[in-house]
Amino acid sequence: MSKFHPIAFYENPSDRLLNPEYDLLPFSFSELDQARYVLTNIAGQYFVVSKEDLHSFANHKLPSTSPTYIDLRARHFLADSHSRMAPDLLAIKLRTRSERLADFTSLHIFVVTLRCEHSCPYCQVSRQSEDKETFDMSVSQANASLAIAMRSPAKNLKIEFQGGESLLNFELIKHIVIEAKRLNENAVESKNLGFVIATNLAIITDEILHFCKAHDIYISTSLDGPKALHNKNRPRPGGDSYERVTAGIDRVRNYLGREKVSALMTTTEAALSQVKEIINEYLDRNFNGIFLRPLSPYGFAIKTKSYRAYNTNRWLDFYFEGLEYIIELNRQGIEFREHYAATILRKMLTSTDPGYVDLMSPAGVAVGAIVYNYDGSVFASDESRMLAEMGDQKFRLGNVSDNSYEEIFLNETLLEALDDSFAQSVPMCTDCAFEPFCGSDPVFHWGQHRDLVGRKTESEFCQRNMRIFKYLIEKMESDRFVRSLFLKWAN
Amino acid sequence: MTVTTLKFDAEIYSVLAIEKGCYRLSDVLSSVIAKDGNDFLVEITFLGKGKTTEGMDATLARLKNEILDQNLREKIKVETAATRNLILAYAFSRTGLISNDSAKVHE
What we know:
The complex is a heterodimer of chains A (491) and B (107).
Chain A: H1 7-11, H2 13-17, E1 23-24, E2 27-31, E3 36-41, E4 46-50, H3 51-58, H4 67-74, E5 78-79, H5 86-97, H6 99-102, E6 107-111, H7 139-149, E7 156-162, H8 170-186, E8 192-198, H9 206-214, E9 217-222, H10 227-233, H11 241-256, E10 261-264, H12 275-284, E11 289-290, H13 300-303, H14 312-331, E12 337-338, H15 339-349, E13 369-372, E14 377-379, H16 382-389, E15 396-399, H17 405-409, H18 412-420, H19 442-449, H20 460-478, H21 480-490
Parallel strand pairs in A: 6-7, 6-13, 7-8, 8-9, 9-10, 11-12
Antiparallel strand pairs in A: 1-5, 2-3, 3-4, 13-14, 14-15
Chain B: E1 3-9, H1 15-24, E2 29-36, E3 39-46, H2 53-79, H3 81-91, H4 100-106
Antiparallel strand pairs in B: 1-3, 2-3
């Protein structure tokens, strides 16, 4: 069967006009604004139509000559006598989007220590002071964690070291990297192993850099913005966090290569009025993008009231101001992207799921990532261990010393969270046109509402993401430059 | 407490569409749905700030539009059910995610 129409299709257009019958293919719709609706088909492709066209279309009254009809057919919202392949194509796209489900747990987070020499008030993991050796992961716990990690079906395994400040237990990082490679070499089916160290870079040394180079290890660090803001957000003895992280970024680049270091920022109340300055800092440091992140409701962010210092709307104002600025930079020829938008756009504009844990359905807990805590406890996600540090052990799946792979991954709490987090069966999400771009975050909703699903009318997760989805679509609909820019970010 | 009742013809509106519409606005109103002959009666109590006449009128208009949308969604869902199942079955037919046992259950 050809993907092209036969010549006869074009020879007598009037025949087609007389035969306007078509079948609806499965789709959802949601209001974009007062006059327009967003439609998404079962494979997540979207299309914007007027309210009138939506009703004509759904009631089989849309003329086959209208441009909307032709667009809807091209994007697999309807099938007529000229597009009988549409269900097959939709199935292939849907299968591609869901491929990650069978290839699960690719990210394994090892919390090698909870010690940290910083004292950030927004810290989401409730760090401990530097001298408490009791907050370090032991070698036997690391080995047991590795044994579980290596059993993951995923072909690509990323091992990420987190803290506290992970480099305070660098000896264990070295052990885990070498042992993981040894296990992989002896495995029947070897995996593609990758390593990332999350560090504030304050205590990086040449020895550490040498090891990173020898083992192709990536560095992920924190840079909150210009010097005054960064040092205010991230206090440490000497008040020189900014000086250390910027010097560290330069050292890593010189030693390992420019692409080996990435940075993340966290939005505090003090950051809200400085989005352009923060973006400029990333530009000055030669990063090609930024991830504008809100605070998460865990750890010291709750204790110190940092999380409640601003609401969702205030953060969205900050985010949209930043996005507008980034779009203007690109218009002036400066290539720069916002990574959260790029992740969503990938879901909107391609058939590939980027596997971003917060935007997965069923939830990314344990399917996308799993956490081995410093004491051997296993958690369903990074946020789960943050919740546990606040005294809520809901998402603790077991302990590497006491429980097998099967016991951990068939844990009732995990299965319940996965079962409940199918957005397709959640009230409101089930009918939402933005569902293919969204996800469910059972840990967030449990933390906020003591319910794995939460009521979406009151969910900050839902409010925040819905506003972003609508914003991105509205920008693409109204500005051709933005559409082409966003296509580039998605691919 | 301000209470209003809306009436929906049961021949035209499904109770599921009315339930979903009310749920979607559950941050600004609470509702009780009852059957009265050939009609559904929805008793609405307004919550929180939007209790001015203008606020209540706007909320009621939103609710009516929402229920209309939900009714259309139900219709589309029924009409496309066979195609949706076909696409899902084909999409996951070779993934190994469907076990022989579960396939037998659905035969």
